[in-house]
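Trying the structure run again after the queue cleared.
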Amino acid sequence: MKIRTDMASEVISSAGDIYCEGVGSRTAVNEQAKLEIQRIHIFSEQVAEKLGKPVGRYVTVRMTDEGIENYSDVMKLRTQLIAHEIHLLAPNARGVLVAGLGNQSITPDAIGPLCAQRVFATRHIRQLGNELDMGELTEVSVIRPGVLGQTGIEASDLVKAACSRIDADTVIAVDALACSETHNLGRTIQLTDTGISPGSGVANSRKELSRRTLGANCIAIGIPTVIDYSSADGTMMVTPRGVDRLVQNGAEYIAMAINLALQPSLSYEDISSLV
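Done. Tokens:
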């Protein structure tokens, strides 16, 4: 059976060494933050086609202690490290559109919309605050496009329209993911500069968001909240028992990391007070 996952690290792991010549990978561990950061670069078009993952960079941030649904006293350090990874993927972002993908009415799919609520939007401040010195703020806009069943419009079409209207040079798309390995469920955050096809991990793939479709750099960030489970009665998708806390905490992790990456002149405490 074909592996069903959004996680590049799982796809490459399942492929073994056969594609190693087209893939670069290195892993670092931060003991203080209790994080493992794996950076993967797929640079061969031929290998990318066989793996079913686009050429580009993939970063997997894995918690080495408890899952994301649990409180951690190293959240500040973790979000700073994740912010650094975002900056590496989008170093020159000046006008950014953050898109919180997913359905907030379905808990495992709510990470994107919940994250969007916590992102510090600044475009209106820059537009209206002519008398203020806003030179150090990156221009950030936020959209929650919903899902096709709610709006009748593909999320990618709404994001593309907004991106074009505000002339964004970078889109950051946040979404829930699917994984195939239990140690990744609710414990990892994946970042990539290849964009995303919403719903692909749960066999409900919608139109992709990528540089090709949007005309802007597209960074995708997500947390796996569902996994396939097979039994005598068939296959179903299951979520962690603490999925409510997982999506809440996961949204806070990603939003804070985005805010820190895009607004380097503001501290963790500054952003916490603003959002």
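The two ends are 44 Å apart (CA to CA). Worth checking whether this holds up in the mutant runs.
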